[in-house]
Amino acid sequence: LVRSSALKSFKAEYEVVSILVATLRGFLSAAALRAMAEGGVAPAPAASIAAAGGQPVPAGPRTLVETGTIVPSKQERTKFKETSEKARMLARTITFTKPFGAAPEVVCGFDHIECASDVMGIRAAADKVTEAGCRVMLIVRGDTRLDALRVTWTAIGESA
Which residues form the H-type lectin domain (predicted)? Predict the structure, then answer.
Protein backbone atom coordinates (compact mmCIF):
# COMPACT_ATOMS: atom_id res chain seq x y z
CA LEU A 1 0.00 0.00 0.00
CA VAL A 2 2.79 2.42 0.88
CA ARG A 3 4.67 1.59 -2.31
CA SER A 4 1.55 2.10 -4.37
CA SER A 5 0.85 5.59 -2.99
CA ALA A 6 4.51 6.58 -3.22
CA LEU A 7 4.56 5.43 -6.85
CA LYS A 8 1.39 7.40 -7.63
CA SER A 9 2.93 10.51 -6.05
CA PHE A 10 6.11 10.05 -8.08
CA LYS A 11 4.11 9.61 -11.30
CA ALA A 12 2.11 12.77 -10.58
CA GLU A 13 5.29 14.79 -9.94
CA TYR A 14 6.86 13.35 -13.10
CA GLU A 15 3.82 14.38 -15.15
CA VAL A 16 3.99 17.95 -13.79
CA VAL A 17 7.70 18.20 -14.61
CA SER A 18 7.06 16.78 -18.09
CA ILE A 19 4.38 19.42 -18.71
CA LEU A 20 6.72 22.20 -17.53
CA VAL A 21 9.53 20.97 -19.78
CA ALA A 22 7.18 20.73 -22.77
CA THR A 23 5.90 24.25 -22.06
CA LEU A 24 9.43 25.65 -21.86
CA ARG A 25 10.36 23.92 -25.09
CA GLY A 26 7.36 25.53 -26.73
CA PHE A 27 8.53 29.00 -25.70
CA LEU A 28 12.26 28.62 -26.13
CA SER A 29 14.28 27.40 -29.07
CA ALA A 30 16.78 24.56 -28.74
CA ALA A 31 19.61 27.10 -29.05
CA ALA A 32 18.17 29.15 -26.18
CA LEU A 33 17.76 26.08 -23.95
CA ARG A 34 21.32 24.94 -24.75
CA ALA A 35 22.76 28.42 -24.05
CA MET A 36 20.89 28.65 -20.75
CA ALA A 37 22.04 25.16 -19.71
CA GLU A 38 25.64 26.16 -20.45
CA GLY A 39 25.28 29.36 -18.43
CA GLY A 40 25.41 31.60 -21.49
CA VAL A 41 23.06 34.20 -22.85
CA ALA A 42 20.04 32.93 -24.73
CA PRO A 43 19.79 34.33 -28.25
CA ALA A 44 16.92 36.71 -28.90
CA PRO A 45 13.99 35.22 -30.83
CA ALA A 46 13.85 36.08 -34.55
CA ALA A 47 10.59 38.03 -34.11
CA SER A 48 12.13 40.41 -31.58
CA ILE A 49 15.21 40.89 -33.78
CA ALA A 50 12.97 41.81 -36.72
CA ALA A 51 10.95 44.19 -34.51
CA ALA A 52 14.16 45.97 -33.52
CA GLY A 53 15.06 46.72 -37.13
CA GLY A 54 17.32 43.70 -37.56
CA GLN A 55 19.42 44.44 -34.49
CA PRO A 56 19.64 41.81 -31.72
CA VAL A 57 17.76 42.84 -28.59
CA PRO A 58 19.88 42.79 -25.42
CA ALA A 59 18.65 39.98 -23.20
CA GLY A 60 19.15 42.07 -20.06
CA PRO A 61 20.92 41.06 -16.89
CA ARG A 62 21.10 37.40 -15.96
CA THR A 63 20.73 36.07 -12.46
CA LEU A 64 23.74 34.32 -11.01
CA VAL A 65 23.42 31.94 -8.06
CA GLU A 66 26.28 30.41 -6.09
CA THR A 67 26.09 28.25 -3.00
CA GLY A 68 28.54 26.76 -0.57
CA THR A 69 28.86 24.90 2.69
CA ILE A 70 31.14 25.56 5.64
CA VAL A 71 32.01 22.72 8.00
CA PRO A 72 34.26 23.92 10.84
CA SER A 73 37.19 21.63 11.58
CA LYS A 74 37.48 19.83 14.91
CA GLN A 75 40.07 22.39 16.03
CA GLU A 76 37.78 25.30 15.07
CA ARG A 77 34.85 23.73 16.93
CA THR A 78 36.86 23.55 20.19
CA LYS A 79 36.06 27.17 21.07
CA PHE A 80 32.35 26.42 20.64
CA LYS A 81 32.50 23.59 23.19
CA GLU A 82 33.48 25.95 26.00
CA THR A 83 31.01 28.26 27.71
CA SER A 84 31.69 31.96 27.94
CA GLU A 85 29.90 35.22 28.61
CA LYS A 86 31.55 36.67 25.51
CA ALA A 87 30.48 35.82 21.99
CA ARG A 88 32.72 33.43 20.10
CA MET A 89 33.06 33.83 16.35
CA LEU A 90 34.34 31.83 13.43
CA ALA A 91 34.71 33.72 10.13
CA ARG A 92 35.48 32.36 6.67
CA THR A 93 36.31 34.44 3.62
CA ILE A 94 34.45 33.22 0.54
CA THR A 95 35.63 33.96 -3.01
CA PHE A 96 32.92 33.48 -5.62
CA THR A 97 33.88 31.24 -8.55
CA LYS A 98 32.43 33.81 -10.98
CA PRO A 99 32.20 37.52 -10.05
CA PHE A 100 28.78 39.13 -9.84
CA GLY A 101 27.89 42.38 -11.65
CA ALA A 102 27.17 44.04 -8.29
CA ALA A 103 27.29 42.92 -4.67
CA PRO A 104 24.81 40.02 -4.40
CA GLU A 105 22.40 39.20 -1.59
CA VAL A 106 23.91 36.49 0.61
CA VAL A 107 21.72 34.32 2.82
CA CYS A 108 23.16 31.98 5.46
CA GLY A 109 21.52 29.11 7.28
CA PHE A 110 22.22 25.99 9.27
CA ASP A 111 22.21 22.65 7.52
CA HIS A 112 23.18 20.62 10.62
CA ILE A 113 23.61 21.40 14.33
CA GLU A 114 24.50 19.11 17.24
CA CYS A 115 24.36 20.79 20.65
CA ALA A 116 25.67 19.60 23.99
CA SER A 117 23.57 22.03 26.01
CA ASP A 118 20.77 24.56 25.82
CA VAL A 119 21.23 27.00 22.98
CA MET A 120 21.57 30.56 24.28
CA GLY A 121 22.45 32.15 20.97
CA ILE A 122 23.74 31.03 17.61
CA ARG A 123 23.81 33.04 14.40
CA ALA A 124 25.12 32.68 10.86
CA ALA A 125 25.51 35.84 8.81
CA ALA A 126 27.40 37.32 5.88
CA ASP A 127 29.11 40.69 5.78
CA LYS A 128 31.73 42.51 3.69
CA VAL A 129 29.82 41.42 0.57
CA THR A 130 31.37 42.50 -2.75
CA GLU A 131 31.11 41.36 -6.37
CA ALA A 132 34.03 38.99 -5.77
CA GLY A 133 33.21 37.46 -2.39
CA CYS A 134 32.08 37.87 1.19
CA ARG A 135 32.77 36.86 4.76
CA VAL A 136 30.50 34.26 6.40
CA MET A 137 30.43 34.37 10.20
CA LEU A 138 29.22 31.91 12.80
CA ILE A 139 28.58 33.62 16.14
CA VAL A 140 27.83 31.73 19.36
CA ARG A 141 27.17 33.25 22.79
CA GLY A 142 26.47 32.23 26.36
CA ASP A 143 26.21 28.60 27.43
CA THR A 144 25.87 27.31 23.88
CA ARG A 145 28.12 24.33 23.26
CA LEU A 146 28.24 22.89 19.77
CA ASP A 147 29.61 19.46 18.91
CA ALA A 148 29.04 19.66 15.16
CA LEU A 149 27.54 22.05 12.66
CA ARG A 150 27.33 22.85 8.98
CA VAL A 151 26.50 26.31 7.63
CA THR A 152 25.25 26.82 4.08
CA TRP A 153 25.28 30.10 2.18
CA THR A 154 23.64 31.22 -1.04
CA ALA A 155 24.59 34.31 -3.06
CA ILE A 156 22.05 35.61 -5.59
CA GLY A 157 22.65 38.59 -7.86
CA GLU A 158 23.19 39.96 -11.32
CA SER A 159 25.91 38.32 -13.41
CA ALA A 160 28.78 40.47 -14.64
Answer: 92-156
